Amino acid sequence: MFRYWGFGLNILSQIEFPELLPIAFDKEDVTIEIGITPLKPEGVDFVKRPFSYIAEKEYILNIRNVCRYYAGNGSKIIAEPVPGIDERSIRLFLLGTVMAAILYQRGSLPLHAAAVEKNGKLTLFAGKSGAGKSTLTALLASKGYSVFTDDICVIHSDPEGKAGIYCTASYPMIKLWDDAITQLDGDLYTREYKIRPELPKYEQFFFENFNSGQLPVEKIFIIHPTGLSQNIDVIKLNTIKSFRQLEQQAYKNQLILSKKLRAVHFSLLSKLTQHVPVYEITRPQVGTNTAQLFEAIKNLL
């Protein structure tokens, strides 16, 4: 069995994960194994969707021609791969949607955001897939910032019980599309490891500089590509708009079912928007690059 740290959790796994941070521990938070997944959740209170079942403490996901996954009680994952499928494809969905289900089951809030760190504080970049979060994060790594996490930030209240909001990283890897690498520094980012054989998207590791601690959030930018915009515009959102925008950035928020979990998330997002400035970046769907995005926000960083 392999032992890893990821998403703020000690993970004991039958599957090897090059993406996760190897670590020694006595007590695991989550186990991952290869096995036979249940056909549906045990209870009667669940939502059935075309490729998944969602219950308060159980989640079943079927990725056709790849793997069927089970996540239960915030502590157990079973993967049932299709024979002959490559391991990277198995890991990709497990470290995304399936791990999000585990976090929700544990009462955590995974935000669909990348983050950079400077002077012990975090700047988050939220937005849908393809918004430009990872590429902007990678660019900032060449401008004195440290990459903290890519794609998922796990949101917490201040560990000392104060008013602030803190984040934990997912794992020490950032994923970049081929055209993003072309925009960036070729000495820093490579095309050595594809996330899936058929996708021109590549894994970039930063184990040596990875921070597994909880750090305070200083500011948040939400990136919105839109066909209605001809320029890059940046506005500071008021508390109500900040809350509504960030609510939509909860990673795989369709997994949030219970009233109890919604109350926890409401509390976290309320604290976040009360204490952290949130900016909205609207940019054209096409025709802008990452350097232009940086120029638009550099005075706010």
Overall description:
The strands form 3 sheets. A 9-stranded mixed sheet has the order 3-1-2-4-9-8-7-6-5, with helices on one face. Strands 10-11-17-14-13 form a 5-stranded mixed beta barrel. The protein is globular and about 50 Å long. Helix 4 (239-248) packs across helix 5 (259-275). It is 23% helix and 35% strand. The chain has 2 domains: 2-106, no CATH class; 110-300, P-loop containing nucleotide triphosphate hydrolases (Rossmann fold, 3-Layer(aba) Sandwich), CATH 3.40.50. The protein has 6 helices and 19 strands. It is an alpha+beta fold and 301 residues long. Strand 1 (2-6) and strand 2 (9-13) form a beta hairpin.
How would the blueprint of this fold be written?
Layout: E1 2-6, E2 9-13, E3 21-22, E4 30-34, E5 46-49, E6 52-55, E7 58-63, E8 67-72, E9 76-81, H1 87-105, E10 109-118, E11 121-126, H2 133-140, E12 146-149, E13 152-157, E14 165-168, E15 173-177, H3 178-183, E16 201-205, E17 215-226, E18 233-236, H4 239-248, H5 259-275, E19 278-284, H6 290-297
Parallel strand pairs: 2-4, 4-9, 11-17, 17-19
Antiparallel strand pairs: 1-2, 1-3, 5-6, 6-7, 7-8, 8-9, 10-11, 10-12, 10-13, 13-14, 14-17, 15-16, 18-19
Helix pairs in contact: 2-6, 4-5
